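To illustrate the input format used throughout this study, we show a single complete record. The first block contains the structure-token representation of the backbone; no residue identities are included at this stage. The design step must infer an amino acid for every position from geometry alone.
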């Protein structure tokens, strides 16, 4: 079972986080005071309407963007205190990111895209990399497409390459922005099963954004964003919603708001 006990050090801690984007002369507020604590091994789903700030929140946790204000702590590190080089190291060491737009390298084939983070880490032999990449290609159902470049793959196949690339380094935290958005329900289900397996067997922390009710039903916690703020947090176990109020202090689960969404 994943360790979600209140005594574990949080793997993600956001405190009064705000993010505004500058558009010409105006500031567009995307996140407006987020408090969120995630324990190692949690399976957290971020839901909310288009424009509510889901991608922005994942980008801050994934250290690919910087908060305008507030504290962003990842794996015990205060990201504001890290240099660009240290942030890159943290990303490579601890984080796997499945972007909404996939961000695959167009001149590399599927195998090479998935292998890329392992090359950056520089810790594995060629044989070890091939073994891991091939196992993941198999798991995401793309063994036959190893030598296709992104423009020779469908949207759903590209998404699966991006998923395999995020998992290949066996990161402690996997962030996924709408990971099943382009997949048919059978493929989406297989991907969620793979993630659940990593979550329960290896204690990998997952943070997803989604509109997909099937993905939401797998959440340990469902965080609803509205207009850049947390409108509510639901604690779930499997498919059964549990009223956090009936189970003691919701902050034991890192919740900041216990109302149902
Ligand atoms: N680079 C940017 N420059 C200016 N504004 C931005 C930028 N990125 C996002 N925004 C704005 O920030 C807000 C939050 O955007 P975000 O992409 O985080 O939403 P989202 O919840 O991921 O939406 P979706 O479900 O459509 O992916 C929106 O109002 C958006 O227009
Ligand atoms: Mg988004």
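Output of the design step:
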């Amino acid at each position: 079972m994943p360790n979600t006990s209140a005594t574990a050090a949080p793997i993600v801690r956001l405190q009064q986080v705000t993010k505004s984007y500058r558009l010409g002369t105006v500031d567009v507020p995307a996140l407006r005071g987020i408090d969120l604590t995630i324990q190692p091994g949690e399976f957290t789903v971020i839901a909310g309407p288009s424009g509510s700030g889901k991608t922005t929140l994942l980008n801050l946790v994934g250290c690919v963007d910087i908060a305008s204000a507030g504290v962003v702590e990842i794996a015990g590190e205060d990201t504001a205190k890290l240099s660009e080089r240290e942030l890159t190291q943290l990303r490579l060491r601890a984080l796997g990111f499945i972007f909404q737009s996939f961000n695959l390298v167009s001149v590399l084939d599927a195998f090479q895209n998935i292998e890329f983070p392992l090359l950056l880490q520089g810790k594995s032999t060629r044989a070890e990399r091939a073994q891991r990449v091939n196992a993941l290609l198999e798991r995401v159902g793309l063994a036959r497409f190893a030598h296709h470049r992104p423009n020779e793959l469908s949207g759903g196949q590209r998404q699966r390459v991006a998923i395999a690339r995020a998992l290949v380094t066996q990161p402690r935290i996997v962030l996924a922005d709408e990971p099943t958005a382009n997949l048919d329900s059978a493929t989406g289900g297989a991907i969620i099963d793979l993630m659940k397996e990593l979550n329960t067997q290896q204690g990998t922390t997952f943070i997803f954004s989604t509109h997909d009710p099937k993905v939401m039903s797998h959440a340990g916690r469902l965080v609803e964003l509205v207009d850049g703020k947390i409108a509510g947090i639901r604690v779930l176990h499997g498919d059964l919603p549990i009223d956090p109020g009936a189970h003691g202090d919701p902050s034991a689960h890192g919740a900041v708001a216990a109302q149902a969404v």
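Structural context for interpreting the output: Helices lie at 54-61, 84-94, 110-121, 126-139, 155-167, 185-202, 213-216. The first strand starts at residue 12 and ends at 23.
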